[in-house]
Amino acid sequence: ASTSRKGAIVRAVDADAARRFRPRTPNMVRLQGEGKFCWSLKNFSRLHQDERIYSPPFCFSGIAFMLLFFPRGNQQREYVSLYVSVADKTKLQPGWRREVHFSLCVIDQKESLCSVTKSTHGELSNTVLDWGFTELMPLATLHSPNHGYVLDDTLQFTIQFERVTEGSVSGQRPPHSTTGVRTNGFFS
How far apart are the C-alpha atoms of 13 and 18, rounded to whole Å? Predict the structure, then answer.
């Protein structure tokens, strides 16, 4: 990406998807360089702790994605959960599959060396719409006064894509997906 795009707000690829998944809190997703996006989730203390929160859509490798965040974990109440998710499954062609390699990070805004980063890879498809971490980090660490994960009531995440390619890494059920898991009374 060119340096003139650095810091630009990533626009929704699909206006309908942006409206459907618009979060209840002011936030934004910024392009940070080729394949790297930053989500600033503001008013963190006002979030209902049992809900799932979607970032605004952003595009990489021609695909609209969002980050999916569970403030009190996805069936792991002592952790926060974070996933990359396909923004609009209605736009996917039958048989659509993409192998994704990426890192998710929760930024320590006081001491960047203490940021929590985890890398993974998996396959997204018509039936597996998200991939990430059920146990990204313990809630106790997130809220610790010794760290700056929540600073000025804002939480910051980044996603860094290594690559997104057509194809299959396996035909097995992914261990890092929320698809088919009952969450907040709904199936993913």
Answer: 8
The amino acid present at 11, given as its one-letter code, is R
CA torsion 64-84-6-155 (nearest 10°) is 130
- Is the distance from CB of 123 to CB of 169 less than 8 angstroms? yes
- What's the CA gap between 46 and 25, in Å, rounded? 8
Residues 172, 123: contact at Cβ < 8 Å?
no
Say whether pTM exceeds 0.90: no
What lies within 8 Å, CB to CB, of 54 at 6+ separation is 21, 23, 66, 67, 68, 69, 85
| Rounded Cα gap, residues 108 and 149, in angstroms | 4
The domain made up of 3-187 has a fold known as: 2.60.210
Q: In the chain, what are the domain boundaries?
A: 3-187
Task: Say whether 91 sits in a helix, a strand or coil.
Answer: helix
Q: What are the tens digits of pLDDT across the range 107-125? A: 999 998 999 999 999 999 9
Mean pLDDT to the nearest integer, 135-160: 95
Query: What SS3 class is residue 112?
Result: helix
